[in-house]
């Protein structure tokens, strides 16, 4: 048995909202990862049982390795299909907002949803949610939004009806947000859920391989370049920093998703407990931050770059140039690290 995490009244309210709706839209955060896509497609396949017109809209493109998930080819890209998405949203009664806690996390799409008359259900596991939804299912103690989708389906009484596609998508999301059960996965209930997903027929090993080991040669070479030429270790702060400019990325024919997971690599060096990766994009610098133990990567992202996320995995967008972003990180790091030590 697993505990009842989601309050009963929210399960019932969500169930009723689905029953009332004629058209349902599912959205997840910008630069969607395996949990954003896995939870969205998991819910999408589950909603087949209700025979509602359902769409999945992502703010931008999905990474190539996610094309393994069933119906990933049906996902609409708001950036490329803005008008179509807007007309779908104009006639929507219910919007599920998955794996994000603030509308700004979905860019322009957030403004459309804020102005929409549709009922909104947020299902998420990030801290400090913004009160934009009619029903907010917010559980930062749960490792992935996909796990929350599993729990919601069970609590609605539909576990027996859960199809293989739903199970596969949920499994992918749970694997992604725990690095393949490498971190944030000490809860025994995660393994109870995995056992149920396997019983549904999920080929977890094949899924793992597709999610984590089907990258292109270019990515491996870019990784080699980062590790040998770009990685800077600051032992006094137990921190690793590296960056990639647009020009460097272009030299390795960078495509979306190619640097996925790079930020975790320095954490396998003994003594490093904080890793920061700055990647230059067209008009912003994307920061990815990871930490081990109780070092608050999300606090750093929030305090200095208005970002957020989880204790050990966070992100932000810097409005500074790439070099100024790195400069600022190095300037603020000593005080931040000292403050953490003083907290102990
Ligand atoms: P990643 O480094 O994989 O892009 O992001 C890791 C986590 O940080 C995400 O799951 C999300 O919780 C959070 N995150 C990433 N980018 C941003 C951002 O720009 N703003 C905020 N508030 N959180 C972010
Ligand atoms: Mn997530």
Structural class: alpha/beta
Shape: globular
Note the beta-strand portion. Answer: 15-25%
Range of helix content: 40-55%
Major beta-sheet overview: 6 strands, parallel
Helical segment count: 12
Number of domains: 2
Number of distinct beta strands: 12
The whole-angstrom Rg is: 20 Å
Helix-strand string = HEHEEHEHEEHHHHHEEHEEHEEH
- Enumerate the spans where pLDDT stays under 50 for 5 or more consecutive residues: none
Distance between the termini: 37 Å
Stated plainly, the CATH topology of the largest domain is called: inorganic pyrophosphatase (n-terminal core)
Query: Kindly state the mean pLDDT as a whole number?
Result: 96
Q: Architecture of the largest domain in CATH?
A: Alpha-Beta Complex
Q: Give the spatial strand order of the biggest sheet.
A: 3-2-1-4-5-6
| Cofactors and ligands | guanosine-5'-monophosphate, manganese (II) ion
The CATH H-level homologous superfamily of the largest domain = inorganic pyrophosphatase (n-terminal core)
CATH class (first level) name of the largest domain: Alpha Beta
């Amino acid at each position: 048995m697993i505990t009842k995490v989601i309050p009963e009244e929210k399960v019932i309210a969500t169930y009723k909202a689905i029953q009332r709706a004629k058209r349902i839209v599912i959205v997840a955060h910008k630069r969607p990862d395996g949990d954003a896509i896995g939870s969205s497609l998991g819910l999408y396949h589950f909603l087949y049982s209700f025979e509602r017109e359902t769409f999945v809209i992502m703010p931008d493109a999905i990474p190539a390795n996610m094309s393994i998930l069933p119906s990933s080819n049906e996902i609409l890209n708001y950036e490329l299909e803005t008008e179509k998405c807007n007309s779908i949203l104009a006639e929507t009664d219910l919007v599920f907002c998955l794996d994000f806690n603030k509308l700004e996390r979905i860019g322009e799409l957030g403004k459309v949803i804020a102005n929409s008359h549709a009922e909104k259900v947020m299902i998420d596991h990030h801290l400090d949610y913004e009160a934009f939804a009619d029903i907010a299912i917010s559980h930062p103690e749960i490792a992935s939004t996909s796990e929350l989708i599993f729990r919601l389906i069970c609590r609605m009484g539909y576990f027996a009806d859960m199809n293989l596609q739903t199970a596969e998508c949920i499994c992918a999301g749970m694997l992604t947000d725990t690095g393949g059960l490498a971190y944030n996965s000490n809860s025994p209930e995660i393994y109870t859920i995995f056992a149920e997903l396997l019983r549904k027929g999920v080929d977890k090993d094949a899924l793992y391989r597709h999610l984590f080991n089907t990258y292109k040669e270019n990515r491996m070479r870019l990784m080699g370049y980062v590790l040998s030429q770009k990685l800077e270790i600051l032992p006094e702060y137990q921190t690793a920093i590296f960056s990639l400019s647009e020009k460097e990325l272009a030299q390795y024919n960078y495509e979306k998703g190619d640097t996925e997971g790079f930020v975790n690599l320095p954490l396998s060096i003994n003594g490093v407990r904080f890793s920061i990766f700055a990647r230059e994009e067209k008009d912003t610098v994307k920061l990815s931050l990871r930490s081990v133990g109780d070092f608050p990567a999300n606090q750093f992202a929030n305090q200095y770059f208005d970002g957020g996320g989880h204790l050990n995995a966070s992100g932000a967008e810097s409005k500074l140039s790439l070099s100024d972003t790195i400069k600022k990180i190095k300037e603020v790091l000593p005080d931040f690290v000292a403050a953490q030590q003083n907290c102990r």
